[in-house]
Amino acid sequence: MSSCEGSDPFALQVLGDSMAPEFPEGSIVVAEPDGVIESGRYVIAMHNNEYIFRQLVMEGERQLLKPLNEAYPVLEMGPEDSIRAVVVQKANRRDRKRYY
């Protein structure tokens, strides 16, 4: 992602099953760095010095990164973590969907 320019939207391929069934492995997601950050939105975050794709859940001052697959843990964002982009669209072999 380092080659993306500032606020330009970018596409990523989903790896693994942590966001299944909504985002099966191989799906392509489009993310906007300047997207509106709200609880319930799907985000690309920097967590523990790694990029991660999760659903953002805000509980008061806490920001949690929730996988859709319950086999994976919910992670709490720390002060060094940040939201890098908001997912606005998904495309895979079966369907296309927008997220606002």
TrEMBL record:
Domain Peptidase S24/S26A/S26B/S26C: 6-83
Sequence intervals crossing the membrane: none
Gene3D superfamilies on file: Umud Fragment, subunit A
InterPro entries: LexA-like, LexA/Signal_pep-like_sf, Peptidase_S24_S26A/B/C
Superkingdom classification of source: Bacteria
Record Pfam families: Peptidase_S24
Descriptive protein name: Peptidase S24-like protein
Originating organism: Thioalbus denitrificans
